[in-house]
Automatic annotation (TrEMBL):
GO terms for biological process: CAAX-box protein maturation; proteolysis. GO terms for molecular function: endopeptidase activity. This is CAAX amino terminal protease family protein. Residues 1-13 have a biased composition (Basic and acidic residues). It comes from [Clostridium] asparagiforme DSM 15981. Residues 222-308 form the CAAX prenyl protease 2/Lysostaphin resistance protein A-like domain. Keywords: Hydrolase, Protease. Residues 1-35 are annotated as: Disordered.
Length: 419
């Protein structure tokens, strides 16, 4: 065969002597490169996983640390709040104890002064040959007034100056209609309080006749009753149990001031015949004072109530019982008109007492209507230093001063039921 037509054998390498990569590219990827890529990807994934685990671990530790810090701060805040509440309750308890001691001293000094005056009067009577009748109501009222208003009250006022004030009553301006509404409520509270006293006396009889204040006033003259009951008593009692007392507890809240003032005032009367209406009136007067800051309002209300309840009704009862008027008013009228008014006086007194009773019932119903219709306007502020919930009773009552005052009042209640 002709050599020109013979094909030379193809060498495994190209003409340049380099390996032929065409066959490799055609046969697929390089296994070594594939292995390296896989190992690299595995290493990358492992590093990512390790990084994620480290991030998660760091995040969890950080979150846990933040939670622990928050819990520690919350516990510290709770501890500090408890410490502050405990300190506040202790200070409030000390304040009430000091006030209780002053009121205890007020009543104790009054009793001691009465004994001293009785002894002095007896000695003066022996030296001067005078026979002083201590069973006479006029003598009893004079001795009681001098000892309480002339001796005990100045001592209590001086002691009150040693106790720091806490807060101050509000300065609201009340209209004439608001004051008139309070006057209606005042008369209604007095009527309801007397009914409650009679109910308690019927359900829980004391076994004794008791000392009735109106009995003492019946035997005294009208002018003396007006001087002591209408003027002296309201001024002293409102200054002591409203202004001086509330000025030193106003920061603890309006509700606390109203209840404490009313309760201590009611207990000071020392008998159930006066406790209920004295408590109600004391609470009402305390609310008026803590809202307005005008002690003159409460003194005026107190004077008006004592005038109609402590003088007007007593004088009408005298006429109803045909006790000839000590002031001589009927006698002067008889002399002026030249007629005998003896048969007329009981009838007039009975009619006036009926009018007073009807007025009291109307005021009781009207007062209830006013309280219901104006209930949204009756607001008790918490105060600058509110009392701790759950510790109010212990702070107000469970302290030496108030306990002594309560024991003294309990003794008065017991004595009034036995005499």
């Amino acid at each position: 065969m002709d050599e020109r037509f013979e094909q030379p054998e193809r060498e495994p390498h190209g003409a340049s002597g380099q390996p032929d990569t065409t066959s490799q590219s055609e046969s697929g990827r390089d296994p070594e490169r594939e292995r390296l890529l896989r190992e690299t990807q595995i290493e990358i994934d492992r590093m990512k996983a390790a990084a994620m685990e480290e991030i998660q671990s760091s995040t969890a530790a950080y979150v846990q640390m933040q939670v622990q810090q928050a819990c520690a701060m919350a516990q510290a805040r709770i501890f500090m709040e408890e410490q502050e509440k405990t300190a506040r309750s202790k200070e409030q308890s000390r304040q009430f104890s000091r006030l209780g001691l002053v009121l205890f001293a007020f009543m104790g000094v009054a009793f001691a002064a009465q004994l001293v005056l009785i002894v002095i009067t007896m000695l003066v009577g022996l030296v001067g040959g005078l026979d002083v009748d201590f069973d006479n109501q006029t003598v009893q009222i004079v001795i009681s007034a001098i000892s309480m208003y002339g001796v005990a009250f100045p001592v209590a006022a001086l002691l009150m100056r040693l106790i720091p004030k806490q807060g101050r009553p509000g300065g609201e301006t009340w209209s004439a209609m608001q004051l008139a509404a309070c006057l209606v409520i005042c008369i209604g509270i007095g009527f309801v309080g007397i009914l409650l006293s009679q109910f308690v006396d019927v359900v829980f009889p004391s076994g004794g006749d008791g000392v009735q204040p109106e009995d003492m006033m019946t035997g005294a003259g009208m002018l003396l009753n007006i001087a002591m009951v209408v003027f002296a008593a309201p001024v002293v009692e409102e200054l002591l149990y409203r202004k001086m007392l509330i000025d030193r507890i106003a920061a603890y809240g309006d509700g606390v001031s109203v209840v404490v003032s009313g309760l201590l005032f009611g207990l000071a009367h020392g008998n159930f015949s006066q406790f209920f209406y004295a408590f109600g009136l004391g609470a009402l007067f305390a609310y008026v004072y803590i809202k307005t800051g005008h002690i003159g309002y409460t003194i005026g209300f107190h004077m008006f109530f004592n005038l109609i309840g402590g003088v007007f009704t007593v004088e009408l009862n005298k006429g109803l019982m045909e006790v000839r008027d000590p002031a001589g008013m009927v006698a002067r009228l008889e002399q002026l008109f030249g007629v005998d008014l003896g048969p007329v006086v009981p009838l007039v007194c009975s009619a006036l007492l009926t009018v007073y009773l009807v007025m009291s019932v109307v005021c009781a119903v009207g007062g209830l209507v006013i309280l219901i219709s104006r209930r949204k306007e009756i607001v008790f502020r918490p105060g600058e230093k509110p009392m701790v919930w759950g510790r109010r009773f212990s702070a107000v009552v469970l302290n030496p001063g108030v306990i002594l005052y309560l024991l003294l009042c309990a003794g008065l209640f017991r004595m009034s039921s036995l005499v």
